[in-house]
Design a protein that fits this description.
The protein is built from 19 helices and 21 strands. It has helices at 17-35, 44-47, 60-73, 89-98, 114-127, 132-135, 147-160, 182-188, 199-211, 213-225, 239-257, 272-277, 283-287, 309-322, 358-361, 414-419, 439-445, 459-469, 479-490; strands at 2-7, 40-43, 77-81, 102-105, 138-140, 163-167, 192-196, 229-230, 262-267, 292-293, 296-297, 302-305, 327-335, 338-341, 366-369, 377-380, 387-396, 399-409, 429-433, 450-455, 472-475.
Length: 491
């Protein structure tokens, strides 16, 4: 993905023009050299062979020329640099014609009217906005503060070119809030939503078991060789159930590999796999986001359960922002400023060690008896302690919100561990929020029983994404934000 960069200047011939253009060129080069570390760029001034004596874009002919270049290069975002004064109609014309996210940038050192130009141009964008991106432009006067914007725009651009896969459709266990308006999802987030029955996956799994058993055996051997402990019980976790679970995982992997555009998937599982086929599909959310298996390196695919479309979107967004697998699961327990995310059988094993090295991760994983379904193992681990960002798209009637929080994964206390009966074999991720929010306030504000998370602090990026999408963000680690949200819902 490429970002366009262009510097404008004053169309008038005024005193200090030579000094002004040298300053424009200096600031342009400094900015370009900085952001090259974070994204690919198309330098509009360089393409137009602008020289020191007349470096900035200063007329509509040059605007048209740089527009053609940026369109040909298919840029996903635009940096408009305003080191000195320009007439706001020039950057407005370019931004309106390109219709991509826009960042206005300047560095006011007291030498030139960068602040004057930034505020004048920004006000012009607001008053004369011809597109959503002109209206919702961003402004910065510090290089470091553009990095989250680059990540956010890149993530949204990647999503818009990708597809979601719903195996078994949506939704499971009569949880209607997991369903979503597909036309709206395609307009806001992704290129396509692919609906596929789980029956072809079952057929492919049976074909693998009958004709490619060596793949199944190799997968199970890879798990064992890397230190994963398997606890057999003669009912749920048996040699046959493990082979069927492995075959389901390999069948889903084969389907995903047949299409390069799939960025994430949901497996409905209950009851089609868990009861009717006779085994849970827990290896899919556990191993699809991992970047290696018995067949070598592979791409990470965000994976969730039960046909949860908004949960899948949340996981895909976090994974795309962070560049690492995302976590998905149920809210298992909530206390003051504290939650446990524990998915019903499996979640990305990356969170067992904060590593995609199988030898580091699988030694912290156990395959244990599932507490639901006809047979199958749950993929148990406790989360590796580190800072995380929690997020979830929700909908109240026809209004979308993005709920988010920053917290830290903690070690599971012995006291809580003893209390867990249902789901003790599931992955268990205890998260302490950054603010000690009252439990009742949290319970009253959660928009789902499913939440996603990723290692690191991506609150700034989520804020940018929400603004670009026109969706209000609710900070679940800020009491004032929760109260404002509840007042909006209940009036």
């Amino acid at each position: 993905m490429k970002f366009g960069v262009v510097t404008f200047t004053d169309p008038r011939e005024v005193a200090l023009s030579d000094e002004r253009e040298r300053y424009n060129m200096k600031k342009h080069i400094e900015f370009v050299n900085f952001i090259r570390k974070f994204c690919k760029i198309v330098d509009g001034n360089q393409v137009l062979q602008k020289k020191e004596k007349n470096f900035g874009i200063s007329n509509m002919e040059e605007v048209f020329a740089v527009e053609r270049v940026f369109k040909k290069e298919d840029i996903c975002g635009l940096f408009i640099l305003l080191p000195t004064w320009t007439e706001p109609n020039l950057p407005l014309s370019l931004a309106s014609r390109l219709n991509v996210p826009v960042m206005l940038y300047s560095e006011d050192e007291g030498l030139w009217p960068g602040t004057t130009c930034m505020t004048s141009t920004g006000a012009t964008f607001w008053q004369n906005s011809s597109s959503i991106y002109v209206l919702k432009h961003f402004r910065s006067m510090e290089k470091e503060k553009v990095i989250p914007w680059i990540r956010s725009v890149s993530a949204l651009n990647k999503l818009k070119k990708s597809s979601l896969l719903l195996l078994g459709g949506s939704y499971s266990l009569s949880m209607e809030h997991l369903e979503e308006d597909v036309s709206c999802i395609k307009r806001l987030f992704v290129n396509d939503v692919i609906f596929e029955s789980e029956y072809p996956i079952i057929q492919r799994a049976e074909d693998i078991l009958n004709n490619e058993e060596e793949r199944v055996n190799a997968f199970l051997e890879w798990i064992k060789k890397n230190g994963c402990k398997i606890i057999y019980d003669e009912k749920m976790v048996t040699a046959d159930s493990l082979k069927k679970q492995s075959a389901i995982y390999l069948a889903v992997k084969d389907f995903v590999n047949s299409r390069d555009d799939i960025i994430g998937l949901s497996l409905k599982c209950q009851p089609d796999l868990s009861v009717h086929y006779g085994v849970t599909g827990c290896f899919v959310p556990a191993f699809m986001p991992f970047t290696a298996d018995s067949e070598g390196k592979k791409r990470s695919i965000a994976a969730v359960c039960e046909g949860d479309i908004k949960g899948l979107l949340s996981s895909v967004l976090l994974e795309t922002l962070a560049g690492i697998p995302a976590l998905f699961g149920d809210l298992k327990y909530v206390d003051d400023g504290f939650m446990i995310i524990s998915n019903c059988g499996a979640s990305s094993i990356y969170y067992a060690s904060k590593s995609c090295d199988p030898s580091e991760t699988l030694k912290n994983v156990k395959l244990m008896a599932q507490c639901q379904g006809a047979s199958g193992s749950a993929v148990h681990y406790t989360g590796f302690p580190s800072e995380v960002t929690v997020a979830r798209f929700i909908r109240v009637e026809d209004t979308y919100f993005l709920q988010s929080a920053v917290g830290k994964i903690e070690k599971l206390s012995d006291e809580l561990k003893k209390k867990i009966v249902w789901g003790s074999s599931w992955p268990i991720i205890p998260i302490r929020l950054s603010e000690n929010i009252d439990r009742d306030l949290l319970i009253n504000s959660f928009g789902s029983n499913h939440y996603s998370a990723v290692y690191g602090n991506y609150i700034e990026e989520l804020s940018i994404v929400s603004k670009l999408l026109g969706i209000r963000m609710v900070r679940m680690d800020r009491e004032s934000s929760i109260i404002q949200f509840l007042n909006e819902v209940y009036g």
